[in-house]
Specification:
Radius of gyration: 15 Å
Bound molecules: FE2/S2 (inorganic) cluster
Order of helices and strands: EEHEEEHHHH
Structural class: alpha+beta
Helix content: 25-40%
Number of helices: 5
Strand order of the largest sheet: 2-1-5-3-4
Number of strands: 5
Strand content: 15-25%
Length: 154
């Protein structure tokens, strides 16, 4: 089978992976780097559970093929915390009870992180828009929106 070697920055470190050129970024992350925080819900770009940052933008990693990240910077939920210190968004999600089963949480965090990087003082509408591609079937979204808004205020 044809393989390709891809070099990119993953969670702030240079990495290299050799894989099939049609392997999805989602599978590269989970299988080749054991970064299982990134989840697969639908696999077709509908649920946002697989959201990661690609050059600072929130993307669905189930829709990105490995060669597309050559030379790029990818951040997964594992790259959000600073060592043992949680990211302020993670602290706020905990404080607000914005996590129930947790399946959507990594994707929600990454969409929120992309928003706050671009717009540090978002309105409630901005937050709702930013997470509009992230489905949660547990929380009803209010706690998540509140958690993101409070992070923006801190
Ligand atoms: S698994 Fe990628 S959007 Fe649902
Ligand atoms: S916490 Fe369960 S899907 Fe969001």
């Amino acid at each position: 089978m044809e393989t390709i070697t891809i070099n990119f920055i993953l969670n702030h470190k240079p990495v290299s992976v050799t894989c099939s050129p049609n392997k999805r970024l989602l599978d590269v992350l989970r299988e080749d780097f054991q970064l299982t925080g990134t989840k697969e819900g639908c696999g077709i770009g509908e649920c946002g559970a697989c959201t990661v940052l690609l050059n600072g933008k929130a993307v669905n990693s189930c829709l990105i093929l490995a060669p597309q990240v050559e030379g790029a910077e990818v951040v997964t939920v594992e790259g959000l915390a600073d060592g043992e210190k949680l990211h302020p968004l993670q602290e706020s999600f905990l404080k607000h009870g914005a996590v129930q089963c947790g399946f959507c949480t990594p994707g929600m965090l990454m969409s929120a992180a992309a928003l706050l990087d671009e717009n540090p003082q978002p309105s409630e509408e901005d937050v709702k828009e930013a997470i509009s591609g992230n489905l949660c079937r547990c929380t009803g979204y209010k706690q998540i929106v509140d958690a993101i808004l409070e992070t923006a205020l801190d």
